[in-house]
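Can you give me the bound-state structure? Components:
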Amino acid sequence: MTAPPLVIGETVPVDVGAEREQMERVWGSKRGLWGWITTTNHKEIGKRYITTAFIFFLLGGIEAAMMRAQLSRPENSLIGPDKYNQIFTMHGTTMMFLFAVPIMEALGLYFVPLMVGTRNVAFPRLNAFGYWLFLIGGSFLYVQFFLNTGPDVGWFAYVPLSGPAFGPGKRADTWAQTITFTEIVAIVGAIELIVTVFKQRAVGMSLNRIPIFVWAMLVTAFMIMFAMPAVATASMYLALDRLVGTHFFNPAEGGDVLLWQHMFWFFGHPEVYIIFLPATGLVSTMLPAFTRRPVFGYPAMVLALISVAFMAFGLWVHHMFATGIPQLAASFFTATSTMIAIPTGVQIFCWLATIWSGRPRFATPMLFIMGFIFLFVIGGVTGVMIASVPFDLQVHDTFFIVAHFHYVLVGGAVFPLFGAFYYWFPKVTGRMLSERIGKWNFWLFFIGMNMTFFPMHWLGFYGMPRRVYTYLASTGWGPLNLLSSIGALVIASSVITFLVNVVVSLRGGAVAGDNPWDADTLEWATTSPPPPYNFLHLPVVQGRSALWDEGDERQVTVGTSTERREVLLTTPLDAQPDSRESHPHDSVWPLAMALAIGVLFITAIFTPLALPIGGALALIAFAGWAWPTSQDVESEKSDEKISLEGA
Amino acid sequence: MRPLTRAVTIAAAALACAGCSLHNAQNALDASGPQSARIAGLWWLMLPIAAVVWVIVIAVMLWGAGRKRSVREVMETRGGTEVVANDEARSRRMTRIVAAGAIVTAVILFLMLIADFRVGQALTMAPSTKVVPIKVVGHQFWWEVQYPDSVPNKTVITANEIHIPIGTPVVMELSSPDVIHSFWVPSLTGKKDLLPGYTRSLWFRADTAGVYRGQCAEFCGLEHAKMGVLVIAQKQQDFDAWRAAQLDSATTPSDSLAQHGKAVFLGTTCVMCHAISGTSAGATTGPNLTHLASRSTIAAGTLQNTDANLYAWISDPQRIKPGVLMPATKLDPRDMQALVAYLRHLK
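Here's the bound-state model for the whole set.
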């Protein structure tokens, strides 16, 4: 089998019907259940990922509503402390580990290959494995919760409260193992994204032409690589303390309770930016479609992303000011925490400049973007305030902080995310979401958000600490809490509005077409929804706004194989053709591997025998995974290096 | 654009309403000492700056989105799409404005940093004058309070209510034998954690006499919500009198009901955890009860210290503070009344 020669910069061939069918055969997954569980297509997996993470968002939202119901009046007896502590722990753990980080990565895994113009994500089996492991880990947490073994030590699980002496039973173990699951999931996702971005970009998409969302995911992926190992190690130490009697965190035996906090927040603060940076990427990538111009200040935007990523690792101690860190040491972290406002400010100024000089269209995604700026700046300015040690000592661990980070995370990440749902829903499903319902969705969310979280600033000053299941009537916190709880109802109604919109639009929404927003990134160059192979002919990129800069005729690469799964690898900096590589076929082994690891992690909290048993199962799964099939061997024969003259 | 205006009005109304501050003994903005006053001052400095920044950003966004486009801002077709034509001069202008914005941001942040460091320095500088040392030990879910003295038997031990003199700095030594707690009385100063394996210190001063409430600010388990603390700031002579009275041993009551109550106390499980000086009860697991009746609250600032509340508390603490480490005590009503009478006698 000799491959046809590769021609770059051709115009789209006219007659492509037969080619389309052939590609469908090569890249499509089998029909039925077997096809469903073996698929390694990034879009299938991405859709599942997004849906699963969104279901966790709904669960976390229900938990939030329960907390707001309990706190709506003083000395309410709706939920007792035991349940309440589980619920707030579940809310935090769910929103951070099972919703926010996974859904951002999931968007990346779905859209990065489309935006960079390739056929699939790098390491597609790892991608399938990551999803299955995420599903198992998340389900494990919820099964435990419904069995009344849900963690009750907070999403930060401070020792010694979560340690063996004060956290009896399996609740804290459940938390620690859930973390281990999600860390692995996040890291494998990050690996796929980094390699996809560096090696699989369309010809011509040099580093300075990458869409900003892709930049954001790349930077985020690197942050994950550095942040997650810290908490994975910490949760392993905790598991060892609890299960085999080590003393990492036991002061009586020379352990240290602050060690946990350092390790946790060394991950925990970058975590916030791991959620926030992709959201800024979403904003920067959506904005051009609604302002009819490329986003202003591309280099500044990218540099801002990178500098935020670096600084994010230098401010974890601002979560620990009250532990009595020496003033001088704390000052450095105050300085970094303050400094990070500068690149973030630059991003905001660039968005303002884009809106100012563009021709805004106020479709629902644009409303969410403007709502995002409105809310995020509130969270941003309170963020600068709490960088101050003395001020933080008053508001730390109070509802002021709850208000602050919900403005940052709901305003700063969930709003762009909902904008993104409206923006990319047509690409994923082929149908538009209703604009009319979308406006309701936005305004209810926006009003509910402010009603819920704005009063909390004052509750913090009035001395209301976080994580309390009730408060005395004499504190006077009742009215503001009631207002906040009513706001939570408004948010809930907004989310229901969204779900209604999805159901209604899936059945009868307007058919989207390839590029309903007249947007400029590559995912809009293919059909909605995209075919299994993404692009019949891989695109060639001629400018930063790929679809606006393509001149009169779209240029593509012709001659990639239609006989085998083949991806075109390009050089990391200039995206010049590098080699043609065979791409793995669908496989059930990633699922088997996820099950083996799942057995290992879950049984490990009950018996040390988990290690040999789970290890053996994982080994079997790995052998199956790596075993070359005749198909693979045949396919790899056509791999070849491309000489650069052709480009 | 009208819904946006509506939202702005709502937000403004919320701000205005929240400004009418709540008068409360637990309020970081209702400062009663130099520490909390300086921190509150920092807030009143930062709030207007933050508000101005926010208003400018939002105004630019709304204006930029809604402004009428001039005829010079032409559109062009690129890749089959109508887009705003590139205008080099305007881009340069915007670059200058964004850069200026970044510089102004940096300058504002730097000035705030200086203000912040100055307050931080004032807060941490140790007082050079005479101080009142107090040891506070956090327990699940109450506060043990000790006033050490060079003469060991002059050490005062109490719980949950901390008396301090006004005008004199108090230096607290904070520790915890179980999990992490955080000591926080917002009207007086910021919080400080009580960490197992560490001893931390916190100093502050109260300038006005009064009762200030606080509560544990680090999640410490089931009853984190009901781990309150009162700081009673009083004139020096009142404080001295209180301290002297606390040194007395408990007296034997004269009325027979309370006498019976003492026998009940010493004959039941109470003595396993509590101490009353002058009796054989000397356990230190729970709060010292020698002067229980002199405290205004019980159950760590949760209930007023009345006969009925004591009765209810001793009979079934789990109903009032589910998860508290004190078990229910089953006594017949007469014994219980006697016990309450005895405890109320412990002035």
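A couple of observations. Strands of chain A lie at 7-11, 538-539, 555-558, 566-570, 577-582, 640-641. Chain A has 19 helices and six strands.
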